[in-house]
Write a structure and sequence with these properties.
This protein is α/β, with parallel strands linked by helices. It is built from ten helices and nine strands. Strands 1-4-3-2-5-6 form a six-stranded parallel beta sheet, sandwiched between helices. The protein has a three-stranded antiparallel beta sheet with strand order 7-8-9, covered by helices on one side. The chain is globular.
């Protein structure tokens, strides 16, 4: 049976555990998560183990990145299964604070970002989101003081926002983006996929197939506006309520007019039933 990782829940315990990990000048990689771990998270852990001598995984369902109408209360929480997966992956330490440890009474500080956080993608539909993300991730970086931190590319705008924040605030952590892990039919792995009904799950890979087709058409010289319009129509015809389907510069997230403005990345967000899915691919 794999050895379970050390679990710490308070800041003093975290500091002591990190001191032990660093005793031999170990390099530390942090994988921030909200739990409900799947193969995408484990891909981050495997990359972390290749790049650092010690791996810390945080599990914290962050209330400040959920709007009142969103799914904070029902967000999947699968502690026993998560711990079994992290033991199998040979993670060294799990940082699992409660809300009062992260946001004690009187907490009044927030990290506010511009740049990629105001690109008109997720921020247009979830204006609260990046303030919550940058604040909690900034705290995690300060608490754990990792040499590097790994994030999945599925949350592509979030990856760019976190990288900008870490650089702007001189936090001394290298941000690594790890490619999306997909199901066999192309659906990007997500903790929220468990919400999909059988019928919705069958339709969900439409987002990926539309983006693949759009990327191929753009490479062949098709006009970007037509590619986006056709893709949006296909997504909506499949039963989705579309928030956005856009082509952006892969580094700055600024709008592009053609493949010549690249590198180009297609990004999509859409709801099917009550479940909101996001995805992206490079061209």
């Amino acid at each position: 049976m794999p050895t379970a990782p050390i679990v710490v829940r308070t800041l003093p315990s975290l500091r002591r555990a990190l001191e032990r990990l660093r005793a031999r000048r170990a390099t530390i990689a942090l994988v921030p998560t909200m739990g409900a771990l799947h193969e995408g998270h484990l891909a981050l852990v495997r990359q972390a183990k290749r790049r650092a001598s010690k791996v810390v995984v945080s599990i914290f369902v962050n209330p400040t990145q959920f709007a009142p109408h969103e799914d904070f209360g029902s967000y999947p929480r699968t502690w026993k299964a998560d711990m079994a997966k992290l033991a199998e992956a040979k993670v060294d330490l799990v940082w699992h604070p409660d809300v009062s440890a992260m946001y004690p009474q009187g907490f009044a500080t927030r990290i506010s970002t511009e740049g990629p956080a105001m690109a008109g993608l997720e921020d247009r539909f979830r204006p609260h989101f990046f303030g919550g993300v940058t604040t909690v991730v900034g705290k995690l970086f300060i608490q754990c003081r990792p040499d590097l931190a790994l994030f999945g590319q599925k949350d592509y705008q979030q990856l760019k926002v976190v990288a900008r924040m870490a650089a702007d605030l001189n936090l001394g952590v290298k941000i690594i983006g790890v490619p999306i892990v997909r199901e066999r039919d192309g659906l990007a792995m997500s903790s929220r996929n468990v919400y999909l009904s059988i019928e919705q799950r069958a339709v969900a890979p439409t987002l990926y197939s539309v983006m693949k087709d759009a990327a191929e058409r753009l490479r062949k010289g098709n006009h970007l506006e037509a590619v986006l319009a056709d893709g949006a129509r296909t997504i909506e015809d499949a039963g989705f309520s579309l928030d956005y389907f856009e082509a952006r510069h892969a580094e700055t997230l600024s709008p592009v007019r053609s493949i010549k403005d690249g590198p180009v990345r297609f990004l999509v967000a859409a709801k099917i039933g009550a479940t909101r899915l996001i995805d992206n691919i490079g061209v």
